[in-house]
Structures are given as structure tokens and as C-alpha cells.
Amino acid sequence: MEKRILKLVYTNGLRRNLRTMSSWRLGLGDGMSSLVREQAYVNGAWTEAASGKSFDVCNPLNSQVLCSVPDMDAADTQTAIDAAHSAFQTWRHTTAKHRSDALRRWFDLCVANHEDLSKLLTAEQGKPLAEARGEITYGNSYIEWFSEEARRIYGEVAQSPTPTKEMMFVRQPIGVVGMITPWNFPNAMITRKVAAALAAGCTCIVKPAEDTPLSALALAVLAEEAGIPKGVVNVITSSRANTAEVGKLLCESTKVAGISFTGSTQVGKILYRQGSTTIKRMGLELGGNAAFIVFESADLDLAVQGCMASKFRNAGQTCVSTNRVLVQESIHDQFVEKLEAAMKKLVLGDGFTDGVTQGPIVNQSQFDKVCGMVTEARDQGAELLMGGEPSPVGDLFYQPTILTKVNEDMRLFKEEIFGPVVSIKTFKTEGEALEIANSTRVGLASYFYSQNISQCFRVAKRLDTGMVGINEGALSAAEAAFGGIKESGLGREGSSHGLDEYTDIKYMCFGGL
Q1: Consecutive H or E run containing 167
Q2: Global pTM value
Q3: Confidence (pLDDT) at 28
Q4: Averaged over 197-211, what is the pLDDT?
């Protein structure tokens, strides 16, 4: 099939997609046409699905079709697996310096294209441009970090129990890694996986979320330009209808050594079961239900600032988003008053408009879930303080909402909301707060605010989550070990520990010495 080229022209500050005749609110740079691809990237080539099928990518702001990408199935995925497996036979033997240099070139190109990557992200995902710019900076930081960590994959020499032996441990790449990434951070969730895998000497197949494939394809464009060899990075796109069979093949193929998945606990469990057939290395960053605890000694202005950062980033659509706000009874009214005042300053609208701080919910199913959770909670006795309804700004916009008097039996208290809804419950004692916070099967992130240093140490140790923000609402950084416990997943991403998911330890014993 002849390669399709997406042509864009300016029309009154807009660019018009000549193939679909739909307008993009982008205002992108002249190099944008080289970043927007409507084909998948397999074995160093831009390709269609073998079936010839495609699916539309839409702007959640207004549901306009941006473009179409290949709807790949298991047969296409097998082609990508074969390419990655073949490329691994060479890539695994490259030097750490070689891989470091390649990642650094990729990083430099991502920095050079920062603005266009940001605008593309806003167009397909909906988050405000300021947040998109922050995500691209964040995503780039993982490429930079692992370009440096590539040269720090060390081994060990152990002390032998006998004089005739020497014992050495070396770390080697595990092989091909299948990566299934979410729509909420369509750039950063890819870079923190791919950069670590490439640094370790692995090759990969990225399957981005069907809502946001364009950011993944743009990263592949820049990886190709950086000179990363064919087959080392592959990006396959598929609709929701084909996603299950693609994931199943990645999990069950004997040519795939590992799976890295960011998404719901429900899907993570399915992949975990499927991966067990071949004893895959599994990196699972799954759902959370973050408690945000405000103790009576807290600096309330700082606590509100932290709650806003944790709750309303990406319209509440993050796995570490505050989900349950627990406030000590004596300061409840003061905290709620300050939080309400801060939330009233949120501005909903088009992410490309200056001053907008909250974009749409990403799709209809997620929007319906948020609406349903709020309605259920109100029916069960929660008190609505503000919001609580869809916003007239657009079909997928939901008003910033505060619900008080929630209880532990409500669905929005037991499950991730993934929307701009704050649910508040009071507590009397530290012990009660910890009991409520830990009464969940997931354990990704939690937050608390206190000016009592003894309490800070006690509570941080006793919260059953993989990450704890202590007087801090923003946890993520390339240097941090990101991950959870319990049903929030396995493994860590970022930090030096992010390489552990992509390496095996080989023990070598030299005898006859």
C-alpha cells in the first residue's frame, strides 16, 4: 500500500488535515509533518496493518477525528516480535557506551522537538498545553537518566569459600520486552520503559493505548532519526477490538522475555496469568487508591497546594492521584474552605487556550464512570459541596467536585475515580487514619501532611504503599523508584532500580585456579 503522508496547512491559525478534512487546534512548528505518522513502526519501516484496516484517533475536546492509524492484530504483532528478536541478537552485544550515546542522541532530538511533541500530546489526549509541556520534560528526563545509567550497570566479585575458585556476577539483558502503555501519560510512560530497556541491551515492542498512539509514533520518528537500529524499537497500533489478542501474544510468545505494563489492576492480572505460561519477567504498574491524610498539625495552605497538585493533574486521571482525602475532625472545616477556594480557580476548556488548567476526560466510558460514581455516592448519603455535574464546556468535561461525608462502602472510596472529584472523610486519631488508608487491596501511593516530625516518621513507615509523599503532592522523577505493593503491581520504574526489570544476574564460577 502506498505510504500515506499527512499534509497540513494553516487556516486562520488552524491546520487542516487534507486527508480527513478535520481541523487541528495545534499551531505546530514547520517540522510537525515529520512527527505525525499514520503508520506503525516495525523493523525500521513505516507500515500498515496486513489487513489494511485502520482506526480513528480523536481529539477528546470535541471528538473530531485527527487522523487514522493501522489496526494491527496478532499477525502484525508476530512480525514485530520477530523483528525485535532478530535485532536483539546484535543489540545485546553493543557496548554500554554505544547504547548510552544512542539514547543521548534520542534525548537531544526530543528536547529539540519539545514544543511540537507537547502540542501533539494535547491534541490527542486533551490535557492543557502547560501540563503537556511538563510531561514532555518529564518524559525526556527518563531518556537522559537511562542514557547515563547505561554505563553504570555493574557486576560483582564475591569472596570464594575456596582458594581454587573465583566467583563473579554479571548483569545481562533479558531479551525482547513487550510494553503496553496507557493514555494518561502517552509520552512519559513510554520513555521510562523504552529508555531503561535499551540501556540494558533489550529490544522492545510498544503497544500504546488506542486513544493516544500519535505520541508513541512521534517518539519512534525521533528514535529512528537518532540512529537507533531497526528492530530495536517497534511501535504497533491497535484498536480496542484487537488489543486483547495483541497482549495475549506478547505474553505467551517464547521470543518475548518480559512484559512491562502500566494500566488497571484488572488487566494487569490477566497479563500476569498469560505471562505465567512462559514464566515472563513482569513489570506491572497498576491501579492505586491514594489516601491523602491531613493531620491537625499540618500547614493547611501547603496541604491544599499538595492536594491540588496530586488531585487535579490531568483532570485527576493519574494512577497516583489523590482518591480519598482523610481530614482530622478539628481542622475539617478550615481545610475544606481553603480547598474549595482553590478549586474555584480551575479553568476548564481547550488545552491550547491560555489560562486553561483542566481539560476533558479522555473518552466516553471514563466520563460515564465518573458521572456514575458521583451519582451513586450522593444517593448513598455523600454531601455535595461543589460541582457534581458534567460541565457545559464540552461533552467530556466534568466539573471540579467536592463530596463530603463519604464512607468506606461507597464505590468512589474503594475504586480509582480517575476524574476531578475530591471525596472527603473525617477521622479522629492517627490510628484510625492509618486503618482507613490501609484498608485496600492496592498500595501504589499515599500522601500525608503533618508538622509533627515524630508523626511523620511513624506514619510514613506504617502506610502500606510503595511511595509516600510527606508534605509533598508530587512524587514522580526520573531519579525516583516508582512502583507499588500489594495489587498495585511488581517492580520499579525510574532510578537505578529501573534497570532491574530488564537484566538477569548471571553467576560465573572460575575453577582450577
Answers
A1: strand 166-173
A2: 0.93
A3: 47
A4: 98
